[in-house]
Amino acid sequence: MTKNIHFLFKTRITSFIFVLLLSFYSTNNIAQCAGQDNSYIVCDIPNASSQSINLFSLLLGTPVPGGTWNDDDLSGGLNTTTGILNAQVIIQSGIYNYTYTVTGVPGCTDFQSTVTVTVGGYSGAPTNFATVCSSTGSYNLFQVFNSSSALLPQSFGTWFNVTTNTPVNSNNINATALGVGTYQFRYTIAAIGTCVQQVSNATVTIIRAPESGAPTNLLLCDSDNLSFPTNFDLNNLLIGEDAGGKWVEISGTTEITTTSDHNVNIQNIYNTFGVGSYSFIYTVNGNSPCDPKSSTVRIIIERRLDFTGSTFIVNSDICENQIATATYSATITQGVQPIPNGQYNITYQVSGPNGSTNTIIASFNSGICNFSIPQTFFQQVGSYNVTITNVSSVSSQGACTNIINIPTDVLNVTEKPNIDNATLVIDPICQNQSAVVEMSNMANLPDGNYQITYNLSGSNTVGSQTIVIAVVGGLSNFSIPSNLIPNAGNTNISITNIINLTTGCLNTVSNTKVFVVKPIPNVTTLVVSANDVCQNQPVSVTISGLGTLTNVIIDYNLTGANTTTTQTISLVAVGGSSNFTIPQAQLPNLGLTNISISYITNSGNSCGAPVSNLSDGFRINPIPVAPTASNRSFCKNNNATVANLLPSGSQYSWYNSATSTTPLSNTTTLVSGNYYVSETNPTTGCTSTRTMISVVINEVQTPTLNANGQNFCGLDKPTLQQLSNNTNANTTLVWFDAAANGNQLPNTTLLQEGETYYGFDFSNTTNCFSTNGLAVTISLTNCINAVTQYDFFIPDGFSPNGDGVNDTFTIPKIKFLFPNYSLEIYNRYGNLMFKGDINTPQWDGKSTESINLIDGIAPNGVYFYVINFNKDNKSPQQGRLYLNR
User: Fold this and answer.
1) Residue 799: its pLDDT value, please?
2) C-alpha–C-alpha distance, residues 17 and 12, integer Å
3) Is 533 helix (H, G, I), strand (E, B) or coil?
4) Nearest Cα to 380, choosing from 409, 416, 329, 415?
5) Residue 722 is inside which H or E element, if any?
6) Mind spelling out the 3-state secondary structure of 703-716?
7) Can you tell me the distance from the alpha carbon of 199 to that of 45, in angstroms, rounded to the nearest whole number?
8) pLDDT tens-digit readout, 446-467
9) DSSP string, 253-287
10) pLDDT reading at 619 higher than 50
11) Do you find a cis peptide bond into 289, omega within 30 degrees of 0?
């Protein structure tokens, strides 16, 4: 298109045509808005201009700015935002494409253009020389370039060893293989396009590495400790080492004391630290760039293992039927010398058809090592010897010859026992007896102890009973416990299982036998009874609950006050009961005796049964001693009865004759005469002989009262003594306040009007009171001429104010002088205020009549009284009194 425009210019077409062409040109530029492809070559990579190549400016045509760039071949040198290419960061020479893309422009038909850039090679600028240690196995030759340089060589060139005239593979050399010396190397980047080949040369010097020597270890056994060196040269453990190095230790023995020290005291190390591994390091310094070189040697002092006194057990013996499933474990237990915890190589040997030697790794812990042994060694019946042939620590270097003094253990695979063909014999037995089973025809069983399991069926049923039998010469026996065969009848025993207790081998068997169990007497219903008796009386014993038995034999014995050995007696039973008398000769002693039935036998089948807890106690009681009693006397007024006799109590019986069989009641009234008493033991019922006493009943006559002896004048203050003086027994009379159960009153007691007193005469000889008492009711009104004899005073006032002084209107002595008197008090209005007599002699100032007063209280003032004497025709007397509160 540009060439056409130039042609139009050259031919100078008219202006109109020119404008049309310009318009056509503008439209095509828009259609190709990303510009046109172009190419570019960069050969001078170190040049600063190679760092900033504007790819947009390299596009042909008129590209629209604002598009995006893409690094098509991932060169890594393009800034896709700015479109600036930095060729110096591209690590490999080559041809790279970069695409420019424009989007969103109307009418755009070509929206991408590509700039192709050829990047020439750059082989770098190496340093003058490089040094490498001969111990370096792999050295990258790119290390010869100055790492501080801003521009490193491109990769993927080729290296060539000019000195040896050999190519270098993968940029690396083996300094150890090349050896000490100086070598020339050439690095080449091939030409590309118009960019020429690039070559850089480098010098590498290989420096000898230091040699610390090839180390060896010193192995020692603690059993040789007496010959351990005391000045051992560690240099003896190195081969080919450079001189001038120094030793250090890392085990803490403190044997190396200076940088030039190389001798150690191994005896001291052992004495101080014991067995162990002790490490020492020899270090030789090298010239740069060689690092120091070190070698480590070890002085290893191992413990000699001594299994003297140890034990070895292989578990466990089996039976032939366990061969397929059995597992086996072995245990070694240390002897005198402790075995350190840790892992050990254990070598053991098994004898037998499948025997062999095997080595395993197992651990000792607290002196014990457990490990398993494969079952393949034990595949048939027989005895197998298992022997430990060697034990060594897994970490052992073989410094010691261990003492393997471990005893051999024997493992047995035993055949299973069989008694299917054994002969069983069982004699008939009684219930509650053990049945003895005799076994024979067992020659196939080795002598020893066996456990058998049997079942019972028939009259007696029980399952899975076990018992141990001893087999000697093919014979044995055992007992079936009586508690397993309680029922009478035919019983079948079946032996189902047998175990050899020595080997533990078991087998199922089938061997049966029937035997007979005869019935025994039923003792559960038996009852024995014996009654208590008094001395010298016979003792009869009754046994009941015998059921249908008719003839029996019983064993009994006596314990307690009377003892015997076992006595046997035959009895005939009728209706389930029988009785017998214990001979008197077996009962000489008083006290409690027990009769116990210990065994009963049915005479019909000779089967008996022990009897337990069947006993009865009876007592042979003594005859009480005749009671002690004395003659008695009683007062008749006491109405003494048999209950008053001594001794008294329920155990004593009183009779009114020596031969009477009916005792007197306790309420029987005593009379003078003879009485008889016996004592009966309330527990035993045994009665003594009788004791006689004499009883006397004393009587005192009832006293009499003199005529008018009950009348007194109260003003004389008479006493009971004065009352006694008015009787026929004035000196011995005793007075009470009641006819019966009254209180005795002193003779000084003042007599009270109308009171009744009861007097009883008392005999100082018999100490008895009269049977009946003298009842006297007192009158204190017999006062003759009292008015003239005694001062009679009528008060003229009183003050009822509650102060305790003169609070009532009272006429002294009037009750004795005029006991039938009456008193009337009126107010000044003539209203009756109070009525009094011997029973209500005092007026307290309150109205007792129907007078309208506040709270019935009479006010202060003058009041009037009227006294009616009612005696000796004495006229009433009137007067006044003053009430002042």
Assistant:
1) 93
2) 10
3) strand
4) 415
5) helix 720-725
6) CCECCCCCECEHHH
7) 14
8) 999 999 999 999 999 999 999 9
9) -----STT--EE-HHHHHHHH-SEEEEEEEEE---
10) yes
11) yes
